[in-house]
């Protein structure tokens, strides 16, 4: 079977799974709604010509309360898994995740500072905007630190990322010390959350993500060649440094768009690409779309778990609690030497 | 890729690769210091030289990975370093030294990556791509691996797959970095055979090869790098000489012809044989034959003695050994007995020698004159692994000659030869040093010596 056929088959199947998980998730909550009713609500949405009578309450619960949250979870999961796949390939390192170059730490500093420091932000930035901007600035700073004479060795980049993350961790701790009344908000943000989502919050990532994902998909073949090592990649006609810059920039912006809205949700970008690599192989032409779709389903499902308990818990706790044991299982059951 | 400025055909006569005054350095260390080389189309050039001479650096500069500090590389009329990575990789394909691929790509995917230089980001897979990949499979005999994971292949198979990937690039020039380094002898030979076939199909190949003898056997020309400069470039026999090897490798090497392949054959000898570091002094003449003396020739030579040998038949194992050690040697034709000319030549050497070593040699009428000549020696050391009676094919006459040698000389164990020779030389020096020096001059003018010794 050709790579294209396999990619289409897997993508169709995973898209179906995402829709199924989404419909199920929209039915789960304090008010239980059967899947058929959920489907009717969805099909009655504005541009569609259907008009089912599902009742006002159901429509509000599904369309205005649960669906924005599900959509955000799907976009964020999609984004984190995409960025994680690219980063693992880029660094040729199985432990790489979307925030390896400090994106999440940067976002966290921006967000926490906005909460703690009682000054108005310039340019009318809100918390999410501040988080996004500081995430991108951090990634760019790490890139500059690791670059010399136009070359950015990935090992240097990795270490610079670790160092900057540690430094920003100290900044966050300091801000926490002085957070006073707002500490609950800060901690909640840091844990990663999807609660209280409105359609407005979905809009930004829905605009940012698709073009960047398509761009990364166009570079899937280059990413494959880069896996052979930079020397080989160069010998096979890849402009190594330029390609690395582009991959790094695109995946950092994708990650920043996600974590700025939801805070730091760990493990999605680490686990999902790993699991998909075991299933479909290392070829990014199939790995990238399937990881992204699986990441979307994964985060929708874990967020449903997070909010269906007696009290809602931040989704970051659920992804880590489920992800870490799964990761250890992979580690033990398969040799994860290469990736 | 042949849209060069000159379509008339005179272009083809120009060398495919021209490196001009290449200087390459890393952080203050100069690695290539003014390399010039012009390589013709259809040549298989072996890049040889000691570790650290800059072989890999030269390859990486030729394929555009490293930018030279000064100088240019031209391939097919284009300056490699002015081209995009994509355009350069349509001219130069590289087979890396490290063939491990950390990811479980299947072989077909890996070979298809060789088409990357010919594909646009948005373009699909074309008929030409399929043809190039299938041809690469065919030429390297790797199609049977196409659906297997690259990690499941052996080192030699992976090598061929990466060669196939390079062929899929359809570049005129192939670079190979130590293609034989991690392979067993069988795969080393198969790999170089394969490269030679590809050259016969029209490729030009430059391969860094650390094994001088494999390089000499398979390459049309060798480029010897030493200290970042070209120390020799041309057919193997002109590049691999004892002088150039001594200078380039700082090693003690002997160059001969391989008896089977006929190619130049280099044998490296341990330290201590060179004249400037001789530990022992004195002349030893060795009487042997049939391989009985090869070891002693080597050991005595390594110990620093000036060793002569003979009379031996051409083609005899001991004669070959003496030749590869570049010793002064008296020979006669295969299966011929010692004639008077040879006898005279060997007597001259025995006169000049401080000591004669008689190995555990089988004696017939043909080589009996050797024993007779040895009777004139200043001192005699004999090695007996078998009783003389078992190896005497020349009757009582030979027994008498040998018995006389035995009474005059010392019979020693094989392992005691160097020590016994040293002792014998010391003893004869204290006996009659004037006698010995009086015999020094004729040795260089031996009649047979000029004819049959190398």
UniProtKB/TrEMBL annotation, chain A:
Listed transmembrane segments: 70-91, 100-121, 127-145, 157-178, 198-220, 246-272, 313-331
Keywords of this entry: Cell membrane, Membrane, Transmembrane, Transmembrane helix, Transport
Pfam families the UniProt entry points to: FecCD
Membrane topology: Multi-pass membrane protein
Subunit structure and binding partners: The complex is composed of two ATP-binding proteins (BtuD), two transmembrane proteins (BtuC) and a solute-binding protein (BtuF).
Function: Required for corrinoid utilization. Probably part of the ABC transporter complex BtuCDF involved in cobalamin (vitamin B12) import. Probably involved in the translocation of the substrate across the membrane.
Protein name per UniProt: Cobalamin import system permease protein BtuC
Gene source species: Halobellus rarus
Protein encoded by which gene: btuC
Automatic annotation (TrEMBL), chain B:
PANTHER family according to UniProt: HEMIN IMPORT ATP-BINDING PROTEIN HMUV
Reported function: Required for corrinoid utilization. Probably part of the ABC transporter complex BtuCDF involved in cobalamin (vitamin B12) import. Probably responsible for energy coupling to the transport system.
Pfam families: ABC_tran (PF00005)
Translocase as UniProt keyword: yes
Keyword terms: ATP-binding, Nucleotide-binding, Translocase, Transport
Subunit structure: The complex is composed of two ATP-binding proteins (BtuD), two transmembrane proteins (BtuC) and a solute-binding protein (BtuF).
EC number: 7.6.2.8
Start-end of Polar residues biased regions: 434-444
The keyword ATP-binding is assigned to this record: yes
Protein name in UniProt: Cobalamin import ATP-binding protein BtuD
Residue numbers spanned by region Disordered: 430-454
InterPro entries, per the entry: AAA+_ATPase, ABC_transporter-like_ATP-bd, ABC_transporter-like_CS, P-loop_NTPase
CDD domains reported for this sequence: ABC_Iron-Siderophores_B12_Hemin
Domain ABC transporter: 17-252
Catalytic activity: an R-cob(III)alamin(out) + ATP + H2O = an R-cob(III)alamin(in) + ADP + phosphate + H(+)
GO molecular function, one term: ABC-type vitamin B12 transporter activity
Species name: Halobellus rarus
Coiled coil: none
């Amino acid at each position: 079977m050709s790579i294209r056929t396999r990619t289409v088959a897997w993508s169709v199947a995973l898209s179906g799974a995402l829709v199924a998980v989404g419909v199920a998730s929209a039915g789960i909550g304090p008010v239980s709604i059967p899947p058929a009713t959920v489907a009717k609500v969805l099909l009655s949405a504005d541009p569609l010509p259907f008009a089912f009578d599902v009742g006002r309450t159901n429509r509000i619960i599904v369309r205005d309360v649960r669906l924005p949250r599900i959509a955000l979870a799907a976009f964020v999961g999609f984004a984190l898994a995409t960025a994680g796949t690219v980063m693992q390939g880029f660094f040729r390192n199985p432990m790489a995740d979307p925030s390896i170059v400090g994106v999440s730490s940067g976002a966290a500093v921006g967000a926490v500072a906005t909460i703690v420091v009682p000054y108005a932000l310039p340019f009318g930035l809100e918390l999410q905007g501040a988080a996004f901007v500081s995430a991108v600035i951090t990634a760019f700073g790490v890139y500059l630190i690791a670059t010399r004479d136009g070359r950015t060795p990935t090992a240097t980049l990795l270490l610079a990322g670790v160092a900057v993350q540690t430094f920003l961790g100290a900044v966050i701790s300091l801000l926490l010390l002085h957070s006073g009344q707002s500490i609950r908000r800060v901690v909640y943000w840091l844990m990663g959350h999807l609660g209280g989502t409105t359609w407005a919050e979905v809009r930004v990532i829905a605009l940012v993500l698709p073009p960047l994902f398509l761009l990364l998909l166009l570079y899937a073949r280059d990413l494959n060649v880069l896996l052979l090592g930079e020397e080989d990649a160069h010998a096979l006609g890849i402009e190594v440094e330029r390609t690395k810059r582009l991959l790094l920039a695109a995946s950092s912006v994708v990650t920043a768009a996600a974590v700025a809205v939801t805070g730091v949700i760990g493990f999605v970008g680490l686990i999902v690409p790993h699991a998909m690599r075991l299933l479909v192989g290392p070829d990014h032409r199939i790995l990238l779309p399937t990881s992204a779709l699986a990441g979307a389903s994964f985060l929708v499902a874990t967020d449903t778990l997070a909010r269906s308990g007696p009290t809602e818990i931040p989704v970051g706790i659920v992804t880590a609690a489920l992800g870490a044991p799964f990761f250890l299982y992979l580690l033990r059951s398969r040799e994860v030497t290469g990736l | 890729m042949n849209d060069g400025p000159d379509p008339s055909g005179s272009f083809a006569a120009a060398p495919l690769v021209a490196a001009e005054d290449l200087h390459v350095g890393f952080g203050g260390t100069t690695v290539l210091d003014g390399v010039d080389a012009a390589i013709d189309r259809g040549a298989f050039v072996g890049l040889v030289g000691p570790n650290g001479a800059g072989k890999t650096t030269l390859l990486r500069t030729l394929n555009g990975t490293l930018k030279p500090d000064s100088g240019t590389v031209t391939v097919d009329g284009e300056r490699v370093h002015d081209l995009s990575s994509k355009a350069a990789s349509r001219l130069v394909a590289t087979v890396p030294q490290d063939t491990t691929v950390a990811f479980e790509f299947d072989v077909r995917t890996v070979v298809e990556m060789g088409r990357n230089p010919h594909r646009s980001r948005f373009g699909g897979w074309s008929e030409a791509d399929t043809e190039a990949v299938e041809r690469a499979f065919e030429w390297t005999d790797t199609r049977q691996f196409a659906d297997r994971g690259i990690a499941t292949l052996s080192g030699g198979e992976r090598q061929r797959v990466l060669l196939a990937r390079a062929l899929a690039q359809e570049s005129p020039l192939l670079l190979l970095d130590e293609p034989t380094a991690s392979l067993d002898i069988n795969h080393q030979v198969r790999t170089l055979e394969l490269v030679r076939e590809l050259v016969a199909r029209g490729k030009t190949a430059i391969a860094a090869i650390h094994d001088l003898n494999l390089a000499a056997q398979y390459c049309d020309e060798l480029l010897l790098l030493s200290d970042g400069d070209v120390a020799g470039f041309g057919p193997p026999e002109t590049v691999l000489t004892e002088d150039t090897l001594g200078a380039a490798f700082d090693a003690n090497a002997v160059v001969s012809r391989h008896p089977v392949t006929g190619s130049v054959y280099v044998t490296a000898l341990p330290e201590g044989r060179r004249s400037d570091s001789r530990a022992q002094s004195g002349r030893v003449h060795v009487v042997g034959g049939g391989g009985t003396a090869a070891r002693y020739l080597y050991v005595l030579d390594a110990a620093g003695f000036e060793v002569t040998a003979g009379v031996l038949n051409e083609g005899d194992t001991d004669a070959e050994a003496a030749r590869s050690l570049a010793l002064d040697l008296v020979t006669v034709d295969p299966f011929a007995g010692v004639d008077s000319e040879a006898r005279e030549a060997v007597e001259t050497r025995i006169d000049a020698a401080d000591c004669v070593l008689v190995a555990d040699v089988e004696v017939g009428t043909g080589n009996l004159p050797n024993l007779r000549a040895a009777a004139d020696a200043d001192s005699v050391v004999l090695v007996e692994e078998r009783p003389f009676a078992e190896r005497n094919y020349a009757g009582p006459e030979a027994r008498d000659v040998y018995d006389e040698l035995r009474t005059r000389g010392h019979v020693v164990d094989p392992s005691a030869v160097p020590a016994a020779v040293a002792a014998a030389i010391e003893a004869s020096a204290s006996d009659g040093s004037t006698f010995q020096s009086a015999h020094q001059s004729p040795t260089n003018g031996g009649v047979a010596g000029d004819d049959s010794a190398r």
